[in-house]
Amino acid sequence: MLYIILGASIILNIFLVWYIRELLIRFSYIEKNSVFFHRTMLDFQEHLETVYNLPMYYGEDTLKSLMNHAMEVKEITEDFKQMFDLSEQENIETEDLEQDNDQR
Known about the structure:
By secondary structure, the protein is an all-alpha fold. About 90% of the residues lie in helices and about 0% in strands. The chain has one domain. The protein contains three helices and no strands.
């Protein structure tokens, strides 16, 4: 009976390790794409501001509303970027640990 439980436990652990690995691969893919999307949005906003500030288009209401919309989308993508940015999360945790050590 013990061998059956041990065998089931080993099989379950192997499955869980495989599943966690797959989740981490997918999470990494999402993180990389969210950073790329955020950079693309920043480039778009900068390009839009450049066009808006040209003398020919300065003060154009349609471009102004498009700029405002681009800024809103940029803020939303910034939120997603912060959720999925692994390196930023590690930096925050490192800073928190350093602050805790400094306080002691």
